[in-house]
Amino acid sequence: MVRIDFDGQISGKVENGQVFIGESLQMIIVPIGLGRQYQINNIFYYYNYEIIQAPSWLDFDPVQSLIYITVDNQGLTDGLEFQNNLIFTEIQLQVTSKLFIDNDIPLTESDGDKIIKDSIKNGYLTNGGYLTEKFYPNQDLFNYNDSFYTDQVLSKIIEVFSGSVFNIPAKFTISNSMFFDPSQTEPLMVLDTYSSQIEIIVEIQDTSKALFVEKNYIGATVILSDAHDYLAIKGDSTLAIQNMVNDMRIQNYTENLNEIKLNFIFDDYLNFQQKYRNIPFTDYQFLKLHEGVSINEAIPIQDQFNQIYADGKVTIEEDFTFQFQEDSFISPAGIELKYQFQMETEYGNGKYANFPQDFWLVTNPVDRRISGTPPQMKIYTKQRIKVTASDGYSTCDAYFLIKIWNFSFFNVILDIMEYAGPILFVLGVWSYKYTLYKIFFPKKYKYTEEVAIVGMEYKKVIPLMQDNLQKGIFLFNLLDLKKDFYQFWTEFGDINKEQLMSLIRHEAEKNPKLIQKNQIDIRDLQKKDSKLTMVIIGLGAIWVMKNQHKHTYKAFQELEKYGKQRYNEIDWFKKFVHITYPDYDEADEANDSEEDQFFSELEVNEEIQVGDNQIHGGFYNKEVVKQQIEQNLNKFNNDSVQMKKNINNTQKIFTNPNLKNDQKKGTVHASYHYHPKNFPILHIFDNILIEFFKQRKIALEQEIQECIYASVFGISFEKFYFPAVSKGINSIMGYERITEPSCLEDGYEQCGLKTNQPLPSWLKVTISNGLIILQGTPKVSNKGQYKIEIYHDCGVILQHHKISVQSNKVNKRESEELIENLNQYQSQIEEVATQVGNNKLQHDIQIEKTSMNKVQNDKNNQDQFNSNKELISQKRTSAIFETNQQIYINEYTYQDDASQSDFIGSQNYIFQNKNRLSNNKYVENIQTNNFVSESAQHTERKNKKYAPITTVIDKQIIDDVQ
Question: Which parts of the chain are coiled coil (predicted)?
């Protein structure tokens, strides 16, 4: 409400007479002290020395006596802003008879009534006593032949009428409503505007002094120029001002901050655009300098490396890999960091350079990973590595030291030397180190032999999840079920013991007999269904992850006994037995469908949020997991200090010098080859594992961490087994071409990662659904032998394969030798066939002879008939030697310019050892398909792109050669 006094001043909301652009103002006109009734006729605006009609930004409501003022930069004319503006309000007072009383004329009140009556009659007054538009000063009034209206009376009437109309002025100033004060320390006071939208432009005058730092902004749209000297913020006024005040960072290149000058431009689409130039950085209180990258002192990279490789030692001739944690460096601005690895050129000289191309270390800055295989020549040396983190504006360096130590089998050789004395040393035992290693670790050096034929597609499917270790030893291997729980927990450590005991007491309230003096005999759990079973089993699984397997066999014996007793009592235990013990009676085949149903109910492929944790669904039911984890997190993880003790105790286990490295790794190797669904017990206590791996403040044993983390969170095993697949398959696979078979043993250790040779060009490698697929078509130039080694990222050799590439064509001389060999062994073949009593074979031979009789009738193909006659014997011979369920003897071209006829041959290496042939005494179910050698059918095969003629052996043929 605005009060207008007769002196023309506006008081009230318009303080000091100012109206701000963008502000909507209502003025209620209430004249005070007039002494009679009135009405407001109109308002006028004073501009350029004239009273004019009100502009569009002024609106008047005579009924409500309201004046509306809404000013923006479009409604202003030049010069209007910051000048005095006048509004005139025309007010008219009511004319009454008493106003005409004048003793000098004289006029009485009755005379006044007459004047009013005659004025209404002549249209000068309304019936209410207000002047009409017909009246204006100095006009001739009442020109009647009435002696009453003398000149004195008429003058009095004009005086009264003129005094009833007057204008009241209202003076105000229109002011800019956008304020900018860079010296303000309060962020909300730096910039203020009535507009809901704004555009802010900040410019650095001299880019040699400073640059803007690129970062993520939330709220308004922020555009940074390519030169990083120009920053535009556009959008909601509140969010844009917050970005300007809280988020802008500059990287200074001068210590004298006064040299950094800034220009500001503000446009809120309401006021006139405002510009501020040459503002020193020191005058701009809320602009912040960029804080560079720093090292996270809580988790030094050297400590991370030492936790994985004790005392920072890696072994020569063994692959190793190390990935430092993502939060090893801190970026206060939240900028994504980029990394670089460099090596000290000579230990202790402090000079660093990039890695040479043929160096034994390989780096992947994107994954923060370094790996390699130290060669023998590096034994007992040290290699310092520098890791540089950069946010694009600043850098930070961290260092860690790699100590290159002795062979993993060096102690074996030392033991032999200790017991055998100096004789072995004199004989040069060290030259037999690889042979000794193979004797002690034979599984790592077993390989399969494959044959690939030139011009034909070769395909080998290798499953990753080999079941070559004892099933489930990760579950209970240190849990002696005969021990009481308190003793077990004491051995495990003091990790959350009080919390766990509180939980156990809570669960055992219904059966107090379970707890006596804080001791729980696990055998009592057989008496009553209780959650304590899951508690102990879950904790036992975690304990086993951190220890060795000294009680494995005994634990399984107890578990089997315990499982049979509980099998028909608890539904969840039935499912557990079916999944964990596929060999347990009817649980192997009869309950496959139940197992599939069990996991299909759990499988949810989506991200779920549990408190502050985001977890991939994997093999979880979202609601069940969410409820279970929230409950268990509250029970187990309320005390963060206790959780740190948990991690510290785990660290002590892995850094315990009394535990051998193989013991620590045993659990890992045992669980490498299992799909996540084979970890059902781990899911019972997912909350512990989630919290355990979420707090990656220390790097646990790398293999355990990745393996269990992958199983719990549903990470695909392609990534787990091959973390470097993105760099190419060569980083995990390698081969060595062998020119002579005798070189196989001596050169075997130099295969794969140790020489980092590329795969042969004809061999393509793909990874899909837990399988490695080797596929390709070799050429003649690829003939020879190849060895393929498949490594785990930790350096464990998973599998070996030897591939022999052989020719698919033979020349005339070779074919003659083959026929001669066939004739030579014809009698032996028949003797073997007689010994096994293979009547079906004789039947098939008769059918083939019948076919040959038909061919004999064709005189033009007599030579072809002779060749096919010999092939009958070849088929029997190949049947004896091939041991696969199906073998394919492919069609080959006989290189004879005269006949140009087909020659059906076989791999001659089958027939190279006469003694091997005599040892093959068991042949069964040999079926030989009919084949026709007539020229017409030959033409038909040719038209069918030489489809191979196939000999199939239905079942395994026992061959002593293998």
Answer: 808-835
Does residue 644 lie in a domain region?
yes
CATH number at residue 192: 2.60.40
Whether residues 238 and 348 fall in one domain: no
Structural domains counted in the chain: 7
Q: Residue 809, Cβ neighbours under 10 Å: how many?
A: 15
Q: Is it true that the peptide bond before 680 is cis, omega within 30 degrees of 0?
A: no
Q: Report the range out of 102-111, 209-218, 440-449, 896-905 with the highest average pLDDT.
A: 102-111
* Same domain flag for 948 and 918: yes
Question: Is pLDDT above 80 for 236?
Answer: yes
C-alpha torsion 940→944→949→952, nearest 10: -130
What is the pLDDT averaged over residues 148-176?
A: 81
Where helices occur in 450-528 by DSSP H, the ranges are: 473-476, 485-492, 497-507
pLDDT, tens only, 862-918: 555 455 555 544 544 444 344 333 333 333 333 333 333 333 333 333 333 333 333
Alpha helices by DSSP H, 32-178: 109-121, 151-163
107 lies in the same domain as 224: no
Q: What does each C-alpha distance from 616 to 283, 426, 626, 628, 690 come to in angstroms?
A: 50, 60, 12, 15, 11
* Residue 42: strand, helix, or coil: strand
Q: Provide the residue type at 567 as one letter.
A: Y
Per-residue model confidence (pLDDT) at position 753: 30
Torsion of CA 709, 715, 716, 720, to 10 degrees: -40
Whether residue 15 is found in the same domain as residue 126: yes
Domain of 433, in residue numbers:
410-440
Integer Cα distance of 453 and 458 in angstroms: 7
Dihedral over Cα of 876, 882, 886, 887: its sign? negative
Give yes or no: residues 272 and 349 share one domain: no
Please tell me the pTM assigned to this model.
0.35
Q: Are residues 702 and 846 in the same domain?
A: no
CB 881 within 8 A of CB 910: yes
- The answer to whether residue 959 is domain-embedded is no
